[in-house]
Automatic annotation (TrEMBL):
Keyword terms of this UniProt record: Metal-binding, Zinc, Zinc-finger
SUPFAM superfamilies for the chain: Glucocorticoid receptor-like (DNA-binding domain)
Residue numbers binding Zn(2+): C7, C10, C56, C59
Statement: the UniProt record of this protein carries the keyword Metal-binding: yes
GO CC terms, sorted: nucleus
Species the sequence originates in: Spodoptera exigua (Beet armyworm)
Entry's Gene Ontology molecular function annotations: zinc ion binding
Residue intervals of the ZAD domain: 5-83
Superkingdom field: Eukaryota
Protein name: ZAD domain-containing protein
InterPro entries, per database record: Znf_AD (IPR012934)
Length: 131
């Protein structure tokens, strides 16, 4: 990295690493240009002879955090969908309906009177004489 070149992600600090070089951190391979593309769909035009395609440690840390967060959310969504799809609604036992066909024709009072044996009883309304 030559002096005067800035990080391609923040344009503030000097780059510490190259965007197109593969690094191994804690057993995990990282190519920062690929991480930018996979995480944010950002394609930084890079050519092999470019000396100005670097990234600073601050931006590397932020990029790792963003990449890890994206992977976390994707994994959680997979797990959620597995649990959601595994959830099945138990089938309800279908029971016979209580069908009251005898009382559908609007003459409920007449049939009730017949059932109770009050054939000769007349129904009278009360008058309001309580005043």
């Amino acid at each position: 990295m030559s002096y005067g070149i800035v990080c391609r992600c923040c344009l503030v600090r000097t780059p510490d690493k190259d965007l197109k070089t593969q690094y191994t951190i804690l057993g995990k391979s990282e190519i920062y240009a690929d991480m930018l593309k996979e995480c944010f769909e950002i394609q930084i035009p890079l050519s092999p002879e470019d000396d100005d395609c670097g990234i600073c440690e601050v931006c590397i840390t932020r990029l790792r955090d963003a990449s890890d967060f994206k992977l976390q959310v994707q994994e959680c969504q997979r797990e959620f969908l597995e649990k959601f799809n595994a959830f099945t609604v138990k089938e309800l036992k279908e029971e016979m309906s209580d069908d009251f066909d005898d009382f559908k024709n609007g003459d409920d009072n007449k049939k009730l009177v017949e059932m109770l044996g009050f054939k000769d009883v007349a129904i009278k309304k009360r008058s309001d004489k309580r005043r």
